Amino acid sequence: MTKIDILYNKNIISKELSEHYTALATNIQFLGKDIKKIVVSSVQENEGKSTVSINLAKSLADLGLKVLIIDGDTRNSVMLARFKARGKVEGLTSYLSGSVGIENVLYETDVNNLTILPSGQIPPNPTSLLQSRNFEIMLSAFEKYYDYIIIDAPPVGAVIDAAIIAKQCDGSILVVQSDAIKRKFVKKAKDQLEQSGSKFLGVILNKVDMEVSSYGGYGIYGNYGNYGKK
Ligand SMILES: Nc1ncnc2c1ncn2[C@@H]1O[C@H](COP(=O)(O)OP(=O)(O)O)[C@@H](O)[C@H]1O
Ligand SMILES: [Mg+2]
Predict the structure, then answer these.
(1) Residue 206 β-bridge partners
(2) Tens digits of per-residue pLDDT, 26-64?
(3) Taking the CA atoms of the chain, what radius of gyration do you get in angstroms?
């Protein structure tokens, strides 16, 4: 694997939020060992897929699990900007198109147990690359090595890619921006992810305004986050 040259930006989330992510990571562990490959999507852009994927992956890694995060949003990759990569970085599209070997697209990060597979250059044909047999082969190889593989996917509403990725995963998570998406679109996206054959694990309601929210003391990611606090 390539040496450490990607740094996790420690300023992504507050300490309080990181507690919610730890609760989320713990809940995912409770789902059992069969749920290893997890795709994270949303109805549309900007709801928080990448943020949730990165922080969920980090929280799982902090629990001592070996985690790989894959940037599957090849059309709109933000992962490297968030991880502050140094130098030229190859990624998923370079591997899927056959231009580099798998050993050249995995990068250690400065978070113990967390490896990243960046998206690579924007290809002319992202969807067909994901449909290639290489993608499936790659995931089955990783599955033997990592405890969790978190895949940041494009939005379900925009392109078919998320469903294609979900087809190769054990479970899917939908990030939903609070007060931004109509219920029927969330339902449609959930149905689409379920039709891929992976288990729908649930919705993460993101960007909840805690000041005005009727979710009260429940926290953003379930009702464990604020337990024991004022
Ligand atoms: N819980 C949150 N609270 C505040 N801002 C957030 C939250 N989650 C994500 N963001 C911000 O929203 C923007 C979009 O998030 P991002 O994860 O890139 O979305 P996506 O990957 O779904 O397009 C980013 O600027 C990110 O920092
Ligand atoms: Mg994103």
Answers:
(1) 177
(2) 999 999 999 999 999 999 999 999 999 999 999 999 999
(3) 17
Taking the C-alpha atoms of residue 213 and residue 216, their distance in angstroms, rounded to an integer, is: 6
Q: Both tokens of residue 149?
A: 């593989």
Per-residue pLDDT reduced to its tens digit, 169-224: 999 999 999 999 999 999 999 999 999 999 999 999 999 887 765 554 444 444 43
Pair 113, 7: CB distance under 8 Å: no
Q: Which residue has the tokens 């059992």?
A: 32
Ligand 1 lined by 119 (C-beta under 6 Å)? no
Residue among 13, 17, 46 to mutate when testing ligand 1 (max atoms within 8 A of CB)? 46
> Quick check: 208 and 16 in contact, CB under 8 A?
no
Ion ligand 2: protein residues whose beta carbon lies under 5 Å = 49-50, 73
Dist CA 89 CA 188 (whole Å): 36
- What pLDDT is attached to residue 158? 82
